[in-house]
Amino acid sequence: MMPLSPITQTPIPTMLPWQPKILMTRIRKPISLPVVSSPSFSVRSSFSLCDRPLRYAVLGAGFAGLSVVWHLLQHSIKDLWIDIYDEVGIGGGASGVSGGLLHPYSPKVKLLWLGEDCWKESLKLLSVAEAAACSREFNLETRKIAQGSDSFLVRRRGILRPAVSLKNMDVMNDNSQNCLASCRIESIDKDAAQNLVPNLCVPLNLAFYMPEAVNVHPKSYLEALYSACEILVRNMSTSSSGRKVLCLHKKSVGNLLELAGEYDAVIVCLGARTAFLPELSGRLPLRTCRGVLAHLQLPDDSGEHYPEHGPSILSDAWLAVQGPQNLHLGSTWEWNSRNYSPDVSSDEASKAMDELIPKASAIFPGIKSWAFAGARAGLRAMPPLTFHGSLPLLGCIDDFVGGNHGGKFWLFTGLGSRGLLYHGWLGKIMAQAVLSCDETLIPPELTSWKKKQ
């Protein structure tokens, strides 16, 4: 009988602690992500009938899906087999093309609903991903994670939001006084703001600086988080936490019922693509919204560069700085689109630039010197507005699938434009609910959408 060997054995790295003083974690060598084929009978049969592992399917390999996978592995004390299904692979959807600006505040710098918990758990997952990246430096020849000299995992330069509206200035000032100690908001004047970003336009002589806020490279982060899951599986193979298997299938799932007989639980983390499943189509309070972000570069002969320690910028358009001569500019909002292709036509890119450049130049006039270098797009799943803001949709969806499934089908979607903030904490809660088969572990604010269906 073939012994259990879910992942090719490599030396087990030591997980590194959170390092807040590191300014940037670079990915030094491109590597490619292996896709594991469907489990073979010989491997599957290494579990005897009496100790059959729990088998879970996670649909989606973006922020939500990989967070759930990580926490399922961490919290399960039993033998566990996890299959991830995503037709475009790790970070191939909207998560992989998000802006990557991570902080726990609204546009009026108000702390978001349970923002402290979300912020804390997101930092924990960033730490996990950085540890995986640093420990092996992604030097496996079979992996490809990022390209270009400005590739990084986390850029720690803070985020700056200039005040642009007299109407909201007093509210923003009040909100900024109630910031987290772990993500401070400093009210600064024009001179201080321009010390951070020369020639920045600060029309009201006021800007809000979040020095602990970070800029995450989403694709690189998700690849590293998946690698961390692999490392965890290997570590657990010699522990008392039960045997673990993790498989990635680069394929789509046509409907949920086709998985009913094979899995103990199915967790749907497909973002906007959730609405394309026949059991859920037209039944969720979600709106889709396509967003285009542009990649801009400074020409090598321009003699200019973005300040080495300069923060990213939030305004009517955001600037996510990738390096001294690279930045991402976003984002457009095309409501009710069903186009989830990341590819952007020349016409769509031109329209996006026509919309974004005037917004960006109102705050950062120097953007006009930067050249267009490409564009990507993602289809967001936007949840409805509630008393607590726009909150993701979580819960057991057995009733949507039909029949008595005993807590088999679960939903985690509607992260909107805040997937990076919400994914860590909500992924942890979702994993605990699935493992316990107990929906009451999920805050009622996140399951209340079901009562309206």
From TrEMBL:
<dbReference type="Pfam" id="PF01266">
    <property type="entry name" value="DAO"/>
</dbReference>
<dbReference type="InterPro" id="IPR006076">
    <property type="entry name" value="FAD-dep_OxRdtase"/>
</dbReference>
<feature type="domain" description="FAD dependent oxidoreductase">
    <location>
        <begin position="56"/>
        <end position="432"/>
    </location>
</feature>
<dbReference type="InterPro" id="IPR036188">
    <property type="entry name" value="FAD/NAD-bd_sf"/>
</dbReference>
<protein>
    <recommendedName>
        <fullName>FAD dependent oxidoreductase domain-containing protein</fullName>
    </recommendedName>
</protein>
